[in-house]
Amino acid sequence: MKNKRVAISYLMVAGVMALLLVLSFRVRLGATADSVVLLKTTGMTCSSCADGIVSALQKVKGVAATEVDVAAGSVVVGYDTAVVRPELLAHTVSGAGYASVVSRLMTPAEYRQVSGRDIGRTTAAAAGCCGMGKCGMERQKKTAQGDI
46: domain range? Predict the structure, then answer.
C-alpha cells in the first residue's frame, strides 16, 4: 500500500515536470533592445495612425519597444540588432501606409541621454481618432494611386 502511494507520487511529479518542460518551450520571451532607431514618418494625423504603426511593428520579431509621436512625425523603435535591421522597420511602417525612412541610429544609453528616459517608458501620440475621416481617406487615396 505504501509502495503504491510512493509510486503514484513519483508519477505525478514526473508528469508535472514533463508538462512544465513542454510549456517552457511555448513561452515567448520579449526582445531586448540593444539599439534604437528614429524613423521620420509622414502621413500620420491621429492616434489611430499611431496605433496602426505600433501594431505593425509589434509583429516584427526583435522589436522590444515602439513609441510614436504623431505631431513630430517620428517613430522610435527599440530593437535587437541580432534579429532585425532598421531598414526593415522603416519598410514595415511604410507597409502600414505611412512613408518612413531611417533618420538616426542610437544606443539605448544615447537615447536615454537625448530623451531623459528609457525607451518604451511612455508613448507619445496625438489625441483623438479620425477612423476613416481625413487621414484614413487620404491614406486610402494614396494607396490606390500607388503613392504609398
Answer: 35-145
Task: Report pTM.
Answer: 0.66
If we measure between CA atoms, which residue out of 99, 37, 97 comes closest to residue 62?
37
The residue whose grid cell reads 517608458 is 121
Q: Is the pLDDT of residue 134 over 90?
A: no
Helix, strand or coil for residue 126? coil
**What are the distances in angstroms from CA 28 to CA 17, 81, 121?**
19, 18, 21
Distance CA 70, CA 50 (A): 7
Of 53, 58, 72, the residue nearest 139 (C-alpha): 53
The CATH number given to whatever domain includes residue 52 is 3.30.70.100
